Prior knowledge:
The chain has helices at 16-29, 46-50, 61-65, 71-74, 98-107, 113-125, 140-147, 160-175, 189-192, 197-205, 217-222, 228-231, 236-252; strands spanning 3-9, 33-39, 76-77, 88-92, 129-134, 151-156, 179-187, 209-214. It is an alpha/beta fold. The protein has a single domain (3-252), classed as Rossmann fold. The chain has an 8-stranded mixed beta sheet, sandwiched between helices. Helix 1 (16-29) packs across helix 13 (236-252). The chain is globular and about 50 Å long. The protein starts with a strand and ends with a helix.
Amino acid sequence: MGVSIAIHSYRGGTGKSTTTANLAVVLTALGLKVVAVDLDITSPGLHVIFGISSDMMKFTLNDFLYKKCYLNDILLDITSHLGLSKGKLFFIGSSMKPEEIAKLLKEGYNEYLFKEVSDELIKSYGVDIVLFDTHPGLTEDTIISVLSSELSLLLMRMDKQDITGTYITAQILRKFRKVSYVVLNMVPPKLASAPELANEVSKLVKAPVVAVIPFYEEVLSHRSRGVFVLKHPRHPFTSRIVKLAETVISLTRR
C-alpha cells in the first residue's frame, strides 16, 4: 500500500524543493515507484531541478484542478529522462504561466483534490510513495494540502524563527492526528556533528528529528542545475539523502 508524504517548511529557503527532488531520485533508485508533485503552485520550481521544460508538460496540475484534463494527462514519466535504471519516477508540475498562477490566486481551487490525487495514484497506478513539495508557511490552502498526506517531513534551519514555526506546525498537525517528522537542513557543519543536536531539537519542536543534513557549499553552488545526487553520487550530501530515504521507507512501513 502506497503512502503520501508532504515535504513542508514554515519558511522558504530551507531547501525544500532540493530535498524533494533528490529524495525522489534516491527512493526511485532503491526500486520504488515514486511521484513527485509540485504543490508550490504560486511559485513552482521543482521542474527546474528535474530539467523539465514547459514543452514537456502538455498539461499541468492547474489544468487538472480546473478539470481541463485527466490525471493521466499530467503524469509525466521522467525515469529515462534522468537516466534511472531502477524503479519508476513520475512528475506532476504546476503551471509556470503568470496568468494561470494569477487565476489560482484570485479564484482559488479545491485543495481536497490533493487527497484524491494521491489516493488515485496509489490505487490505480501502484505508486509506492507520493511526495508533495508544498508551498511554505501556514496558509489555509497549504495546511489543507499537508493534511491530505499520511505523514509530513518538516524541513527547518537552525534559527529561532524556524524552530518556533516548526513547533507550531507540528502542533497543528498533531491536533489533526497527523504524523510529522523533522529534517534539520543546511546545519552549520560544527553544529551538525554534535551528537545531542537531534534530541535537543526534538524536545524543542515536540516532534522527532529523523535527519540532520549539514550545509554544503557544493549544493548551494549547484544552483538547482539538475539533481545533485545524480551528478555527485559520492558526495557526503548524497550519503545523507540516501540515509533519509532509508528512514522514510522504514517510517512508511510502520
